[in-house]
UniProtKB/TrEMBL annotation:
This is DUF2784 domain-containing protein. It comes from the Bacteria. The keyword Transmembrane applies. It comes from Pseudomonas izuensis. InterPro entries: DUF2784 (IPR021218). Keywords: Membrane, Transmembrane, Transmembrane helix. The chain crosses the membrane at residues 12-29, 36-54, 95-114. The keyword Transmembrane applies.
Length: 119
């Protein structure tokens, strides 16, 4: 039971991390010190999409699910939880490139704003 709760909690954390990667720059506009958390997170998010890197959170969730007697999943978090809701056809390398571009563009714009407020 505890492993299942931990796996579910990790799914929630994973989702919040993705939201932070994409929109964390908005928090940096208000709280500048978050830049030290957001820049590495955004860099990781872009790298995962560009280079098709496995996310360790997915692996940990699968390990917890197996320990709880459940089956894990072979695809990544996005492919398993988010993608079927948005695009049932599946994730392609081209779409991953677009996702990385969106994350990068949103954050570049937000950081340009942060910089302009300090000038």
């Amino acid at each position: 039971m505890l492993y299942r709760i931990a796996a579910d909690g990790l799914v929630l954390f994973h989702l919040l991390f993705i939201v932070f990667v994409v929109f964390g720059g908005l928090l940096v506009l208000k709280w500048r010190h978050l830049i030290w958390l957001h820049l590495p997170a955004a860099g990781w998010g872009v790298a995962v999409e560009l280079f098709h890197l496995p996310c360790p959170l997915t692996r940990w969730e699968n390990l917890m699910r197996h320990a709880a007697g459940q089956s894990g999943y072979g695809a990544g978090f996005i492919e398993h939880y988010v993608w079927p809701v948005i695009y049932p056809a599946g994730l392609t390398p081209t779409i991953q490139l677009w996702l990385a571009s969106v994350v990068l563009a949103v954050n570049v714009l937000l950081y340009l704003r942060v910089i302009s407020l300090h000038l």
